[in-house]
């Protein structure tokens, strides 16, 4: 499988989208039909106004990637998409993401975490499928659903949990909390609470890789940046501006849209003029691909190609991963808006269960080996909680660090003294 900006005006043209025999032109998308797993209907206006919004067309994109994967399988000498080691690595990473966050939910409801906490449950195949193919020097830019991206990138579970507890041992010394994971060491360039804010940061990181290689002559700088964001965010202006710059300058970046069909309580189908986000890639001169984001092996195949393109200096790719979050928008959301049938549809497609099935059916590992992974991860997560719980809170004096360029915080008061040195300065405004 290989992408190019031209051949992906229709992504991976392996399927010419021949309508199924019962698809009459006017009925390409019957009113009862759904957008992939969504139980919401397309609006009739978009249906009649533009037949290219049809579900048949949409499905062709999904099939296209599946076909590419099948084709690859046929040509591979082992007939399998992964080796045993790769399969176990992917499985362990997804189990880590899931177990870690299940524990986050417990800790949040016990009052150990503050503010909002947004879980990634259900979307693990995207983080694992992409990030496990990166090098340490490659960068990842995330959203407020950033714990699992950070774990996949290698940030120790202890540091992520401590950050969530607001403790001094966290990866941001307790100053970021749930939505602002950052690690210089592992090149996690931030979780971003303002949606879309991370996209220009990622574009800048990709620009710096190209600049270092071509202007500063650092020949070995082939670093790639992955920008993760949601379907709702893909309607924001930064996204379009950055697609333009990335394509214009052939930046080594992959834009990974995690289309979980919802932006808080707003259905993607209600909010987006053309719900097929991948199509925006070719519009800017880069490949656009749609992949089943509940299948880590398919995500990985697409990721391999997109990351490879970026690393070879061939430019950016836009990948739309169709996925689903298993919990509410945040842990404070009772999740009453989404249709139970839609939730059940995706729950039955749990990416961890699917990979387990693949591993067992292909005799890549035994049930015992998988159980051992769960045990190892349970211990690791328990250890992370203990570590976070026992860690100290950051000192009060740290509150104003890293906020302003002046390392002493809020700068100099009218009397010439540093404001942060006035013990009364933070009283009543924040308690840490
Ligand atoms: C600039 C900005 N506008 C609005 C919000 C409020 N907000 C928080 S999450 C969210 C929805 C984002 O949905 P999506 O991009 O699909 O990500 P998901 O939560 O589904 O992962 C919005 C509008 C925000 N955080 N930042
Ligand atoms: Mg969303």
Automatic annotation (TrEMBL):
GO term, biological process aspect, one: pyruvate decarboxylation to acetyl-CoA
Subunit relationships: Tetramer of 2 alpha and 2 beta subunits.
The keyword Magnesium is annotated on this UniProt entry: no
Domain of life: Eukaryota
CDD domains per record: TPP_E1_PDC_ADC_BCADC
Function according to Swiss-Prot or TrEMBL: The pyruvate dehydrogenase complex catalyzes the overall conversion of pyruvate to acetyl-CoA and CO(2). It contains multiple copies of three enzymatic components: pyruvate dehydrogenase (E1), dihydrolipoamide acetyltransferase (E2) and lipoamide dehydrogenase (E3).
Enzyme Commission identifier(s): 1.2.4.1
Keyword annotations from UniProtKB, A to Z: Oxidoreductase, Pyruvate, Thiamine pyrophosphate
Ranges of biased composition (kind: Polar residues): 1-20, 31-54
Cofactor(s) in the UniProt record: thiamine diphosphate
Catalytic activity, as annotated: N(6)-[(R)-lipoyl]-L-lysyl-[protein] + pyruvate + H(+) = N(6)-[(R)-S(8)-acetyldihydrolipoyl]-L-lysyl-[protein] + CO2
Lineage of source species: Eukaryota, Viridiplantae, Streptophyta, Embryophyta, Tracheophyta
Organism expressing this protein natively: Prunus persica
Occurrences of domain Dehydrogenase E1 component (ranges): 93-394
Protein name: Pyruvate dehydrogenase E1 component subunit alpha
Sequence segments annotated as region (Disordered): 1-60
The keyword Oxidoreductase belongs to this UniProt entry's keyword annotation: yes
């Amino acid at each position: 499988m290989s992408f190019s900006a031209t051949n992906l005006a229709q992504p991976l043209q392996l399927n010419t989208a021949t309508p199924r025999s019962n698809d009459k032109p006017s009925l390409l998308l019957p009113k009862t039909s759904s957008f992939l797993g969504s139980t919401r209907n397309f609006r009739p206006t978009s249906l009649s106004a533009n037949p290219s919004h049809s579900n048949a067309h949409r499905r062709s994109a999904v099939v296209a990637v599946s076909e590419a994967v099948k084709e690859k399988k046929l040509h591979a000498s082992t007939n399998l998409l992964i080796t045993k080691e790769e399969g176990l690595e992917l499985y362990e990473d997804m189990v880590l993401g899931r177990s870690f966050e299940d524990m986050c939910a417990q800790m949040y409801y016990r009052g150990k975490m503050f503010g909002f906490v947004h879980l990634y449950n259900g979307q693990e195949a995207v983080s694992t499928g992409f990030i496990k193919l990166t090098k340490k020097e490659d960068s990842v830019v995330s959203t407020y659903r950033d714990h699992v991206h950070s774990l996949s990138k290698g940030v120790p579970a202890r540091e992520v949990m401590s950050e969530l507890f607001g403790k001094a041992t966290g990866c941001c010394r307790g100053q970021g909390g749930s939505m602002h994971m950052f690690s210089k060491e592992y090149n996690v360039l931030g979780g971003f609470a303002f949606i879309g804010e991370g996209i220009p940061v990622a574009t800048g990181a990709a620009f710096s890789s190209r600049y270092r290689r071509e202007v500063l002559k650092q020949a070995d700088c082939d670093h790639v940046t992955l920008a993760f964001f949601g379907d709702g965010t893909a309607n924001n202006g930064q996204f379009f501006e950055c697609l333009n710059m990335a394509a214009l300058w052939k930046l080594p970046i992959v834009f990974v849209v995690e289309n979980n069909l919802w932006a808080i309580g707003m259905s993607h189908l209600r909010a987006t003029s053309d719900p097929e986000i991948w199509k925006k890639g070719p519009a800017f001169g880069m490949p656009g691909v749609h992949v089943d984001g509940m299948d880590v092996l398919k995500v990985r195949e697409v990721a391999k190609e997109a990351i490879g393109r970026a690393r070879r200096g061939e430019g950016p790719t836009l990948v739309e991963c169709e996925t689903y979050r298993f919990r509410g928008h945040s842990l404070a959301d009772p999740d009453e808006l989404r249709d139970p049938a839609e939730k059940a549809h995706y729950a039955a497609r749990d990416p961890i269960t699917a990979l387990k099935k693949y591993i067992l059916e292909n005799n890549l590992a035994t049930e015992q080996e998988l159980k051992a992974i769960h045990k190892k991860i349970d211990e690791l997560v328990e250890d992370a909680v203990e570590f976070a719980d026992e860690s100290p809170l950051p000192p009060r004096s740290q509150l104003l660090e890293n906020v302003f360029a002046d390392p002493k915080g809020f700068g100099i008061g009218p009397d010439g003294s540093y404001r942060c040195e006035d013990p009364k300065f933070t009283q009543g405004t924040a308690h840490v």
